[in-house]
Amino acid sequence: MSTHNHNEPEGHKPEQPDTSAGYERSDVRATGIVVFLISMTIFIGVAGIVAYGLGKVLDARMAKEDGPVSKWTKTVDVRQLGNLPSSPELQRKLGELTQQFPTPRIQTDDGLQDLATLHKHENLLLDHYTWVDRSQGKVRIPIERAMELIAERGLPVAPAVEHAPLMTGDTKPTVTMPLTSGFARTGYEQEQAEAEAAQTKHQ
């Protein structure tokens, strides 16, 4: 296959570099490097001027939106205040200040104590006689007594409801009894009960 270049004149041979000296005899041309450095310097300068002008425009717009300077908009250098030292006295004062906040206050724990208190109140209602309406003589009875009365008397039976015949492929729904009553104490309450039992045992 011919490798003749049709763009070259007949009889022209490419110049071969002189390698007899063993090194490059000509110097590197620095024109391209100088042009690149000058262009980069000009670009950085223009970008800096544009960024500075944009910052001035944004600052002027923000100052216009904030309004005139007053004691409420005064800029304070917080670095002059230094780091707040940690001391029990400051923590005590902070605790006193938090108690002066209006309710509802933010919870200081994860809510486990509140849940335990709620369950104690529920247990008082479930295990003791309490008034529902003293004027009408309505009394709330303990749950154990209520279960005994239901076992003796039974629950009132509602009249049977006539259902339409089942369609093809339908089944009569069945209700299964739950395995538990649905009430379970939290791990926090169990730990409290164990601690109270241990303390009673040591006494």
Structure description:
The structure is a single chain. The protein has about 200 residues and is mainly alpha-helical. Among the domains are: about 30-70; about 110-155, no CATH class. The chain is about 45% helix and about 5% strand. A two-stranded antiparallel sheet has the order 1-2. Strand 1 (about 130-135) and strand 2 form a beta hairpin. The chain is elongated and about 120 Å long.
Question: Could you tell me the mean pLDDT?
Answer: 78
Biggest pleated sheet: 2 strands, antiparallel
Residue share in helix: 40-55%
What's the alpha carbon Rg, rounded to whole Å?
45 Å
Large-scale geometry: elongated
- Strands of the largest sheet, in order across it? 1-2
What is the count of β-strands?
Answer: 2
Low-confidence stretches: none
Taking the alpha carbons of the first and last residues, their distance comes to 111 Å
What structural class do helix, strand and pairing data support? mainly alpha
SSE string, helix = H, strand = E? Answer: HHHEEHH
Number of helical runs?
5
* Strand residue percentage: under 5%
